[in-house]
Design brief:
The complex is a heterotrimer.
Chain A: H1 13-18, H2 31-41, E1 55-60, H3 73-102, H4 107-132, E2 135-141, H5 149-160, H6 168-188, H7 197-201, E3 212-213, E4 230-235, E5 246-250, E6 270-274, E7 286-288, E8 293-296, E9 301-304, E10 310-313, E11 322-323, E12 325-327, E13 333-335
Antiparallel strand pairs in A: 1-2, 3-4, 4-5, 5-6, 6-11, 7-8, 8-9, 9-10, 12-13
Helix pairs in contact in A: 3-4
Chain B: H1 2-28, H2 33-40, H3 42-45, E1 52-53, E2 58-60, H4 69-78, H5 92-106, H6 116-131, H7 155-164, H8 179-193, H9 208-229
Antiparallel strand pairs in B: 1-2
Helix pairs in contact in B: 2-5, 4-5, 6-8, 7-8
Chain C: H1 2-13, H2 16-23, E1 26-27, H3 35-54, E2 63-65, E3 77-79, H4 80-90, H5 95-122, H6 131-153, H7 158-172, H8 178-186, H9 195-225, E4 239-244, H10 245-270, H11 276-279, H12 298-306, E5 312-314, E6 317-319, H13 323-338, H14 340-347, H15 365-385, H16 387-394, H17 398-430
Helix pairs in contact in C: 3-5, 3-10, 4-5, 5-6, 5-10, 6-9, 7-8, 12-15, 15-17, 16-17
The chains are: A alpha+beta, B mainly alpha, C mainly alpha.
Chain lengths: 351, 235, 442
């Protein structure tokens, strides 16, 4: 097994390169060889101070150097040429990059030139290192990380500094208390980043009598949807109000299974639910008309629209809040009030 | 005399099939478009061309937006997918007649080029939740099917299907979605069938999953390069 | 000439001794020691390309009407941030290239960190005296995760905005302080006018500064403590064997740097990433299926999908169902990772000695098996987060796939644990055991 210190065989530097993937293991060390090698390096023990120049542990000349084994002039010239070629390619591709930039600036060409110049330059450096730089392993001493006890005592002495102040404990207590107060003051600055959340989270803009309108502002009336159709609707005059988006569906009235208290919330089979998923806030935009299921495309939570958007599958755990509806004299759909619960994902103070 | 007999035989051989098939067509099938439709198309496409759907799959799409006569003729002649070719069953006259019937009587959904940008906005609200933001299909739970890719669907099929709402798909009648909005959505979907990808291969718009797998592939390539750089290294 | 410049500096900074020490510094030669460097070079690329992008990006959420070169969005109301990203992609010369390279570099950065972390874990390099660097490394991972998330959310497109909403919901679910924390950070119910600017400030300034400082500290500690060595001749807890830094290791390392850049450039040139023009601008009424975060958050997305719907009531108050997979699980996971060096001492092997020689993975079967099982667990979670993409790609039901994954998420890690453990024991018996390295007594 390659020990790392074994001189590579003559004429075998390409072969050695081919045997490169030696992986994790290094094999059992030969202690005799190690001692011999240490002797060669002229070292028997290591002092505690790190020498400026680590000892050479093993060294072999670079494959492309003059000293290596039998002269392989041809291979050496080839290696030199390859390294030169790599750098010239890098240079050329860089110029190519500039040229492409100033002319067509085609994305693929530009990026291709960039990739080519980086790759060639990198390969050039690596090949130079492989073939022409001395492969020298050095051995060095690791300094002891723990400081010697004498030094540690000296630190303690320097730190205590023979301070003569009175009432040390009280002073330190006051200093600590002040620092804690500083920290609290700093933390309380974060309050400036926030407004109180519950007034924004709990109610929405929907009020009794608000008309439902589409994205373009057209009012929705009793004839807008067929059974099995769906629309996104918003409160009139405040289409972009936060958490106020509603998904409107129309179902066969005979199939409704709403709770008794919501019996008159669905005129002509129109059901309006908050479009903000109670799981993680995505827009519940998927309506399966046959099963009368609303589904959130983010994590596939499903809600049964016939029973008040109760969750029937997926990770959501609470129903979608329902917007109570009625039809006014013109047949336009209006809200009876705000949602049945605060819309959106749950939070600590959710009632 | 032999020449005349040969000519008569050749003429008979040439004309007989014409006569035979012509008689067959005349005897077995009507050439009125509506009648052809009722005899051959209604089983899959419905009585008024509205399409027929099972619970999770479409048997025959809606024809209510098919305005392109030549496209209908081509489709009947060659078939597509589960639709067979009718070239051996119907004469070209009959095919022409049924195409005329479809495009003049059945196709009631107007279709015109729409506003691309507005179509995009509407698409992302109404269509994207199921069909994907690149219209290449989306997963649906509990519907028995995933929403299909729209990449190979014609404008007419798309428009007809939006108004129809087959199976689990909701319908969008003209009271909910105006004809202009429908046109815009169809225009945008056609744009999405071959969108510009200036940054390179879009990896079929599989999104960040494909990007993540590609990044790991690249990372392994880099590790391979590191193995090459430190070949023979013992650590 | 180099000598003259060197002398000029040396006369003012007394550099010779330090430079000699640096040039002769021993770097062990093994590809697995280069994984951290891959991460480092990716980070350098991110900073440089990020500066370019920051010259054009507009970190504002103010809505405006788009009238740029991409016709499919002409006249659509978009945020200034989104508009600037479209501008970079379509109108700035080389803009799309730099943007794509930046995003690819981020994905590779995190992959390299994970590979590096895995190597440290599997070779027990986190043992004394390297516990500090282990924790710094984990912090770097967390910061990189966060910065990646903020980075791709800056574009304010439909996909990343959905991700921001999910992050908002997760933060909101924290008991007692959740809504306050969320409003403090995001500025209200997302999207708000403050969300993009705050993420921008974090992404280009705060987090990169902390990252750079911690990377510097990470490297300084390595310099001070010296690299570990794999077991081998001459390598003990008192000595280190490696290549001289100059010239061979420096050439190899800089070569690696450019090869990393080359791979990033290749991807940026030929593989499209994050086509925000297809996703469209954020619109609270719009949404898309098959939506995932970038890969390094896929495990979180997976646990959000797999976890059963179960909220908890504490008196009148609610702990929403998303708290457990979204907050508690990642917190416990990272707590486990941070304290692992100490946990290992309590549960597996009480070894307080200093170690500079690495263990090979099969020499610590329990730890290796645990690590492999954890990795498999996170991998299954990643696929769980992609279950709808798998469903569409294979034409199957997402419900069926999710059910399979719910089983697999327990079975696969358990199986991996036993298989890895058995493999390690087998390897230990059959591969020649390493000579026990001498242990330093400090």
């Amino acid at each position: 097994m390659n020990q790392g210190r074994r001189i590579r065989p003559h004429g075998g530097w390409i072969g050695a390169a081919a045997a490169a993937f030696s992986g994790w293991t290094a094999g059992g060390p030969s202690t005799k060889g190690l001692r011999m090698q240490m002797a060669m390096a002229g070292e028997n023990s290591f002092g505690d101070t790190t020498p400026d120049s680590p000892r050479v542990f093993s060294s072999e000349p670079a494959p492309g150097s003059q000293q290596h084994g039998s002269p392989q002039e041809g291979l050496r010239n080839l290696a030199t040429l390859l390294v030169l070629f790599a750098f010239m390619l890098a240079l050329g591709a860089s110029i190519g990059f500039v040229v492409v930039y100033w002319t067509s600036a085609s994305h693929a060409l530009l990026g291709g030139m960039a990739a080519l110049t980086m790759a060639s330059f990198g390969c050039g450096l690596v090949l130079w290192s492989h073939w022409f730089m001395k492969h020298e392993q050095v051995i060095d001493v690791r300094e002891t990380l723990s400081s010697p006890p004498a030094e540690q005592q000296a630190v303690t002495k320097d730190f205590l500094a023979d301070d003569q102040v009175q009432r040390r404990k009280l002073l330190l207590g006051l200093v600590s208390g002040t620092l804690a107060a500083f920290a609290a003051a700093f933390v309380s600055l974060f309050r400036s980043f926030a407004r109180p959340p519950y007034p924004a989270l709990k109610p929405t803009i929907w009020r009794q009598g608000d008309r439902l309108v589409t994205l373009e502002g057209r009012p929705v009336n009793i004839n807008t949807l067929d059974v099995g159709s769906t629309l996104s609707v918003f409160p009139e005059n405040r289409i972009d109000a936060e958490n106020a988006q509603v998904v409107l569906v129309r179902v066969n009235q005979n199939l409704l299974r709403l709770p008794a208290a919501r019996a008159n919330w669905a005129p002509s089979g129109y059901l309006a639910y908050s479009r903000v998923c109670t799981h993680a806030g995505c827009s519940v935009g998927l309506y399966e008309a046959e099963l009368c299921l609303l589904e959130c495309p983010c994590h596939q939570s499903t809600f049964d629209v016939l029973s008040g958007a109760q969750p029937t599958g997926g990770p959501a755990d609470r129903e979608l809040p329902q917007l109570p509806l009625y039809a006014d004299a013109d047949g336009n759909l209006r809200a009876r009030g705000d949602f049945s619960a605060p819309p959106g994902p749950g939070f600590w103070g959710l009632p | 005399m032999p020449t005349v007999i040969c000519a008569a035989i050749l003429a008979f051989l040439f004309l007989a099939p014409q006569i035979a098939f012509g008689r067959q067509a005349a005897q077995s099938e009507p050439s009125d478009g509506a009648a052809v439709y009722a005899a051959h198309c209604i089983k899959c496409h419905g009585t008024d061309g509205g399409g027929i759907a099972g619970v999770v799959s479409i048997m025959g799409p809606s024809l209510k937006a098919e305005h392109d006569r030549q496209a209908v003729v081509d489709r009947v002649l060659h078939g597509k997918g589960i639709m067979p070719s009718f070239k051996t069953v119907l004469s070209s006259g009959q095919i022409d007649a049924v195409a005329g019937y479809v495009t003049t009587e059945l196709a009631t959904i107007p279709l015109a080029p729409g506003d691309l940008a507005n179509g995009g906005t509407l698409f992302r609200i109404y269509c994207s939740p199921c069909h994907g933001v690149s219209a290449r299909g989306g997963a649906i739970a509990f519907a028995g099917t995933n929403a299909p890719s729209l990449v190979d669907k014609s404008a007419a099929t798309i428009a007809g299907t939006i108004r129809w709402g087959p199976g689990p798909m909701p319908s969008f009648p003209s009271s909910a979605m105006t004809d202009q909005q429908l046109d815009s959505i169809v225009t945008y979907i056609q744009f999405l069938q071959h969108p510009p990808s200036p940054g390179g291969t879009p990896m079929q718009y599989f999104g960040s999953v494909a990007e993540g797998l590609m990044a790991w592939l690249a990372a392994f390539v880099i590790v391979g390069l590191a193995m090459w750089i430190e070949r023979g290294g013992k650590g | 000439m180099i000598r003259e410049i060197g002398d000029w500096f040396d006369a003012r900074l007394h550099l010779a001794k330090f430079v000699r020490k640096a040039l002769n510094h021993a770097f062990p030669d093994h590809w697995s020691f280069m994984l951290g460097e891959i991460a480092l070079y990716s980070f350098v690329f991110l900073v440089v390309s990020g500066v370019f992008l920051a010259m054009f990006f507009n970190g504002s959420a103010v809505q405006q009407i788009y009238h740029g070169s991409y016709k499919a969005l002409d006249g659509v109301s978009v945020s200034a941030a989104y508009q600037s990203v479209l501008h970079i992609s379509f109108d700035v010369r080389a803009g799309l290239l730099i943007r794509q390279m930046h995003h690819w570099a981020a994905l590779i950065f995190l992959a390299a960190i994970v590979m590096h972390l895995s190597r440290i874990f599997l070779t027990a390099a986190y043992r004394r005296p390297r516990e500090i660097n282990w924790m710094i490394g984990l912090t770097l991972l967390l910061l990189a995760l966060a910065n990646g998330f903020f980075g791709y959310s800056l574009a304010d497109d439909l996909l990343s905005a959905a991700g921001v909403r999910i992050a908002y919901s997760v933060l909101l679910s924290i008991p007692v302080v959740g809504s306050w924390l969320t409003f403090a950070f995001f500025g209200g119910v997302v999207p708000t006018d403050a969300t993009i600017p705050r993420m921008y400030a974090l992404h280009i300034f705060v987090i990169p500064a902390v990252l750079a400082a911690l990377i510097g500290l990470h490297l300084a500690i390595i310099w001070k403590q010296r690299h570990t060595n794999y077991p081998g001749p001459g390598r003990t807890d008192r000595t280190i064997v490696g290549s001289r830094m100059w010239p061979s290791y420096a050439a190899k390392s800089v070569g690696l740097c450019f090869l990393v850049f080359a791979v990033i450039a290749f991807l940026g040139a030929f593989v499209q990433i994050d086509p925000v023009w297809i996703y469209g601008p954020d619109n609270p009424a719009a949404i898309l299926p098959n939506a995932q975060p970038d890969w390094y958050l896929g495990w979180m997305e997976g646990v959000l999908r797999l976890f059963p719907a179960a909220h908890v009531h504490v008196g009148h108050f609610l702990i929403p169902e998303i708290f457990f997979p979204g907050v508690l699980f990642p917190a416990l996971l990272f707590l486990l990772l941070y304290t692992f060096p100490f946990l290992e001492r309590w549960f597996i092997l009480d070894d307080e000695r200093t170690h500079h020689i690495l263990l090979l993975p099969y020499q610590q079967p329990l730890t290796t098996a645990f690590g492999c099982a954890l990795f498999m667990f996170l991998l299954v979670l990643f696929f769980s987060g992609s279950d709808d993409v798998i469903a569409v790609a294979t034409g199957n039901s997402v419900v069926a796939i999710r059910t399979i994954l719910r089983i697999l998420v327990f079975v696969a890690p358990a199986a991996t644990f036993f298989i890895a453990y058995a493999a390690c024991r087998l390897a230990r018996r059959h591969i020649a055991p390493q000579a026990a390295p001498s242990v330093a007594d400090d």
